[in-house]
Backbone:
C-alpha cells in the first residue's frame, strides 16, 4: 500500500514589472527653476500564475488537501520569482523608467529649468542610468 501523492503541474504565468510614477515625489522650485525628484517608487512585480494540475495520484489515506495546494501555489510563485531575478524583465522595466524620466528632462531643458535627483543635476539620460539601481 502506497501513501504517496503526486501531481504533474503545468504553469503558465503573466508577469509584469512596472513603476507607478504617480507615486513619484518631487519638488518644484520656481525661483531657481529647478525640479527635484525626491523619490522614485520601487518597482512593482505582479505574478499571475495559471496552474494546471494533470495526472494527480493520491491514496485514499493520504489525499491532496487545500493546504497541499496552497504549498504548491507558494512554491510556484517562489520559483517564478527566482526566474524573474535571472531574466531581463527588471532591466527592461528600468530602461522604460529611464525613458519616461528622460521626457521630464527634455521638458525641463526646453523650459530652461534644471532637473535634480539625489543631489545631482541630471543632464542626460545616462545620468539617470548611473543614479537608478534596481
Residues:
Amino acid at each position: 500500500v502506497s501513501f504517496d501523492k503526486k501531481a504533474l503541474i503545468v504553469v503558465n504565468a503573466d508577469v509584469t514589472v512596472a513603476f507607478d510614477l504617480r507615486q513619484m515625489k518631487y519638488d518644484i522650485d520656481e525661483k531657481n527653476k529647478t525640479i527635484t525628484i525626491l523619490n522614485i517608487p520601487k518597482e512593482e512585480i505582479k505574478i499571475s500564475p495559471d496552474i494546471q494540475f494533470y495526472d494527480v495520484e493520491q491514496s485514499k489515506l493520504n489525499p491532496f488537501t487545500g493546504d497541499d495546494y496552497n504549498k504548491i501555489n507558494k512554491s510556484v510563485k517562489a520559483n517564478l520569482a527566482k526566474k524573474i531575478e535571472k531574466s531581463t524583465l527588471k532591466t527592461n522595466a528600468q530602461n522604460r523608467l529611464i525613458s519616461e524620466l528622460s521626457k521630464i528632462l527634455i521638458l525641463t531643458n526646453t523650459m530652461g529649468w534644471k532637473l535634480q535627483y539625489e543631489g545631482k543635476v541630471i543632464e542626460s539620460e545616462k545620468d539617470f542610468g548611473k543614479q537608478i539601481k534596481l
